[in-house]
What does this fold into?
Amino acid sequence: MNVNVRLVGVYIFSLSLSFLAGIYFGPYLFFVFFFLLFFPISLVASTVIPFRSIQVQQHWSVFKPVRGEKVSARLFVVNRSPFPMQGLHVEFETDMRRQSGELAPMDITLRARTSHDIAMTLLFAHRGAYRLGVESVRAADPLGFVALQRRIETRPYLVYPRIHELQHFSTVVTDVLGGSAVSADRHAGDLGNFVQLREYRDGESIRQISWRKYASTGKPFLREYEREQKNGVIIYFDTSPAPPESSDPREYEDAGVEIFLALVRYLLEHRVTPIVRAPGNPELEKVELGPECFDKLVRSSISCSYARHGGLEALVDQDVRDGLLSRKVVVAITHDVQSGLRNSLENGTVTDLKLVLNLAGLGRGLQMRLRSDAAGLFGERADLYVVDDARTIGSVLEGKTYGVTVGG
It folds into this structure.
């Protein structure tokens, strides 16, 4: 409670004058004294008493929302006192104002033992940890003697990334588990060491079409591979920031997290536990079998940090020196097309690379340039998946969406 000391001083001075006037000029002036004594006090009391009984109740339609999901929120400001509450000023948490379109503070009047219902719809465009609800309530008596304020403990609210459920992803599972693998990958073709190109025949899957050959000849050719048994999968998740010229860096970050979770979930469901490299995010590297592990991974991904680091090239070089990549399927999630990855393919240290380009939120011009760079660098040496919109993550990873721009 803040007291207006200057106004209180003026009030006491006026009260003293009215009391002295009553003594020297007649008892009828004491009515002025008693009026000045009790009327302001009653106004202050009529503000303080109901203000102390104010309570805020909050209800949400969804407890674990994912980004892009609409959430209905209802807030109740309750006056539990037998006196009305005039001019109650309600302020909302900053995160809540942003998600509901800059929700303005409001002034409300509450009759005795009533509540005010505030209903709204929130839309969370990005994952993250938010705080929602009424941040504070304020009131002041009509004469301005006291100003009352109470901070309300806002609710922590976690918005999760979307989880894209994959039916298959290349032949990663069958390459690792061989004959014991689930047949979900049978439509993708058997990959391994590249053998030759042959002409496409009607009715065949277009997953292994050589887009470079198609661009130069105008005829579709399929890549054929010799099957090689792999002993595991390693995922490199590039958590470096989006390029400065990106149109929506947060969309890029969220798409990267969702690509990563989609791949990890798919592998765990097929009992393949990947090795994960996610610079600056050690909590994302602790992957084990079981739904509890994945749930923990999803929760950790809410706070996934994107920061400057040495890039994937240095990580790959270190793992090559340590012999970690021998007979591994390598999956790289990145926007940064580095020549070092190509060198690892050319010298045989990496024999099976799935390169997932995360271009979501980067802007059309930058997307086209990175597509062309990736196709020119890797050509037939890697399976290239291009995600330029987070809504297409599932279809791209399953090989249903194509459109890789082939460098000339």
